[in-house]
## 1
Amino acid sequence: MTKISLGRRAALGLAATSMLPRLGHTQGTWPDRPITFVVSFPPGGSTDVSARLVAPGLGELLGKPIVIENRGGAGGNIAMGYVARATPDGYTFLVASSVFVVNASLYRSAPYDPFRDFVTVGTLSASPNVVCVRTDSPIKSLPELIALAKADPERFNYASPGIGTTPHLAGEVLKLRTGMPMTHVPFQGGGPAVQAILANTVEVIVAAQGTVATQLQSGQLRVLAQTGATRSPDMPDAPTLEELGIKDAVSETFNAVYAPAATPRPIVARMAAAILDVLKSPELQVKFRAAGVPVAPEGADGLQARVAREVPMWRNVIQQSKIVAE
């Protein structure tokens, strides 16, 4: 369990106490029972891991346990639709990946609106997407892959964790920016996509860093490029797309916490402050990084700015690539 220093606990307690007159009697006692984090994917993925890593420290800091409830399905829509309609009393929060900024444009009948139905609480983690091949592949660089694909347009396909995931969209951005022909092969999650490239079913995979962390460490996969704005410290030899001359192609897979829109703002503020406080723990940061999902403590305002930026960005990519999910 992540330990919270007495100084930080006292500081947060004073901040919370200052909110009490605005909270009212019922809200002022928050939380007086367990809080549920509804995770948009099944156990084991980066979203679930991020929620479970932060939950013990939050429970200790807030004085009530954080219960993880996985509601996977429909590309994250089941959980997002559920929390959008949950009672906004501060006891139900959503933990979602980047699908939060994608699905409203991807699905014709998405069960939520990212701006109307939710308020941002805080980002937990973020990692670049990576373009990888097997280490026994003769392809050593992304420019080489692009040249080979253009010379033989029917040759290459690439695996992703599914339609509309940020790795899929990152692959489509790469195709749009370079004119590289490559067929998308979606899988039901990162695990099956990784197994496909290891089995030589596909020659290329685009995935979040955390999805392929084990295979990179074991030497089964080679990174050709990463989609972050700067090089990841865990992949210092892998160039960014910008370094390779591919502009306007930065993307990350991020995991964040949201609350139903009508949740009292003092409660949202207290949860947001608690998340930022817990993410300061060096021990917890090591655990996040080991899982391939480095912490990204943006806070509520930073997450709100990210959502405002990425919803239209991905809508444009979806429209240009003519991607539709039912």
Note: Residues 6-28 form the longest helix (23 residues).
## 2
Amino acid sequence: MLPQSRWVVLALLLAVTIINFVDRQALSVLAPILRNQFQLTNTDYGIIVACFQFGMMTGEFPMGWLADRKGARFTLSFAVAWWSIATGLHSLGRAMWHFAALRFWLGTGESANFSSAMKIVSQHFPADERAFAVGIFNAGSMIGAMIAPPAIVFLTLRLGWQSGFLVPAALGFAWVVLWRVFFRQSPAPQTAHTESIRNAELLKHSEVWGLILCRLLIGPVVQFYWYWTPEYLFRERGLSLQSIGLFAWIPFLFGDIGNIGGGWLAGYLMRRGASLTTARRITMYGGSALCLLSFAVPHASSAVLAITAICMVLLGHTCLSANFFARISDLSPEASVARVTGLTGVAGGLSGMLFPLLTGRLVDHVSYTPVFLLAALMPLAGVLLLDTLSRRTAFHA
């Protein structure tokens, strides 16, 4: 791959991540309408979200294996087409189990996004640029979450709620065409090396377990904000659907700043003489400290202050996240990066499946307060576990 073309590919990874998160955010933006129309409880909604996470958990390792084995060009082409079909079929949903089944399908496809992207970053970016590259494509998660509320509301008010699923599905198919055209020089899959590093061997290393446990704890936090922020602002803060469309995107703008800024900061620290591990520690601990402001959200005296606290949490979380994903490539042999990413995704999928169920029960029977408290503490706990278990900067099979 020519040096300049990696940035074109990175732009395509950013684009697909945006589409990915518009697809998954569409349901949360439309949740007030769908819940009222189809009489869905908080527990029902929690089940629907959990089914998506179950799909993610189910697909993570197979998609990571596929990316290591067949390469990212094939894997992303298949995965984006697969999840775009599921997105479009949401327009036919009429009951809780319809949406639950389609969310599972969606999750199995979307699980390929990060493992394939991490494979490409590990192959084409040096260590001091990886967090920045991860921050760029991971910014798509926040851009998608940022543009989804106004875009989906706009489509819904003019064309009906079904268009909020059909238009993003069409964008996915369009992206596949661009991907097939522009990404033609992927390095040959490292089959022999991949086979020499057995899956069981990966689990013998404490670094891998540190990554798994870290994602287990940090993953559900941002997912909680993706899926429940519109509902929280609608039910607890009294915002209308139009107001949600106008304001719910703002925290995700701060998430973008954290993604790109956190990745840039790690590279800057390394260029100033900090070691790789020190740069990761500073950015990840700093990000987890900002996540502690999650507990302030339910105690804020106004919706404006609540949204401000959410902004700071997402700023910190994405700074942490960009460096966490870069840490995967720091700690993993190149031939296993996608599989290690997939293993962490299994953990994130498990906790992401259980946390919405817990959230639904707590909101129905207690309040949002204990959920925000958990969201405040889990990122710091995850970083502490990763730091404790990661004693080396790399391991070798």
Note: DSSP finds 16 helices and no strands in the chain.
## 3
Amino acid sequence: MTVQRILIVSGTHGNEINPVWAVKQFNRKENNLNNGIKYEYIIGNPAAYEKGFRYIDVDLNRSFKDFENFDPHKNSFYETYRANFLVDEFGIDGSKPCQIAIDLHTTTSNMGTSIVMYGRRSKDFCLAALLQNKFGLPIYLHEKDKAQTGFLVEAWPCGLVIEIGAVAQNFYDQNIINRFTLIISSLREEIDKLKNKLIELPKELVVHVHEGSIDYPRDEKGDIDGIIHPERINQDWKMIKKGDPLFLDSQGIIHKYERDQLIWPVFIGEVAYKEKKIAMSYTKKEVICSKKQWVQEFESF
């Protein structure tokens, strides 16, 4: 196994400040080289971080795409330049190549500490299984959503998002910071244990697979005309069945879930997703059997 560098990205969204603080604290206390693996630290969107904005022009975490067709003379978006810089600097063929990217995020929804995967790459499954085995974290597998693409970790051979909430934007929370620090400090150790055959992957991996998203009720002008029902607030990862309430509109009418399929919601009421017309996303639960291929591909770095 030749993992030599792991990229730790904080501040991909500039108003998510707890990961930045956690990385600063961790970097002061810890040796940068451990178990033969070096961490590279970077603030993903420093301009937005300085202003306390989510982004300057466009969402950086949707900007990692179409690198081959990037024309600096035609595109003036700050985040597009920034995405290209990060890949040129830390991508697998960059000046400081990193095999793995860990993107640290916070959310205003009650997601707890969770893992977000994009697609079904074997290396990602291996790393996610290590972390789920260590910490018991839920996994949100985001796939098959053409409206949501270009995520940072997809630009690396292996990458995961660590998502922690609930916490308000631009608000420091020491408990959130401690959770990030614990995961960062354990990552290299778990990889080293796998490398030296000291641990095995769990036989099964439980994931919540993205099925779609639900918008708020809206009036004829397209304005939001309903709020998340009180019974649904803070109920991320909790099963929804037919007849359960979703929203309460301005007329006092309860909007219920009408389908027969059981679903599990995530990112309920995430503030940043209002602009994307998402009140919550919903998932199906899937149990995936671990495969030797995951470890074999992870060891092939």
Note: The chain has a mean pLDDT of 95.
## 4
Amino acid sequence: MKRFALPATALALCGAFLLTVVAQDKPAASSPAGAAPPATQAAAAPAAPAASAPAEVVCFESRKGATELTQKEIKPGLLNVKCSPTTGAALWYGDPYHGTVPMGKMPGLETIPEGQAVVRPRADKLNFLAQCGTACHNGTFPKGFPKDKRAVPIPTMEAMVPDVKELQHGRGRIWCLDCHHTTKRNMLVDHYGDPISIEQPQLLCGKCHGDKLRDWRDGIHGKRIGDFTSTGKKRWFTCTECHNPHNVQDGARNRGFVQIAPETPPQLPHGMTSAAHEKVHPIAH
């Protein structure tokens, strides 16, 4: 019996050692509730990387700083607008009428069916519009009005809207309330003193620029997109979408409005070496 006692003792000691090792290697799920996982296991689990949101793509439609449009999907796989990587301008529209509303009554356009002429509202893009009519000019006349029609410098306003410090519109012969309503500063004004919606600046601009209003109305001046049949629905771009009314002489140039860089020329189709045929009139004279 003695010859089996020593091996049995050694086997028992080995079994006890193995049980100790297995107990240490048990998974964390078997540990008591609320117990912290071993430090080695916590360090071994890498943290999941935070998903970064894609950068917004913003392009302008006709004038930088006034007609910005953020690219987004309006239907699965259909973007509202494609932006130029060269100039940042809008190249084409997935839906030219997305976000538009009826233009409203316009003298000379009474024959256009309701809803066939649309515009994109811009009031929500004008940062100080609500503040103009409430916080700063809440139904009050300016100092000296109506005898004195010279604007009084207001440093706070000049800091917010630098263009008004040296108003170039009219070359110094007009002042703020020739265009803005006397007490409703978030609206424009006609010659009779009646308010005009900020969304219909053509009714204001036509007071002085009758020839340009006529050309805009007839489709000679300005920009439109949509259905180009005679009775098709079109989006009309209003005056202030292309022109800055406070700086129409464009600073040092003292004429025109801010010019944009042209797009790069289109590439010829594969296999074509020249586009000289474009210079030839299709009908012989």
Note: The chain has a mean pLDDT of 78.
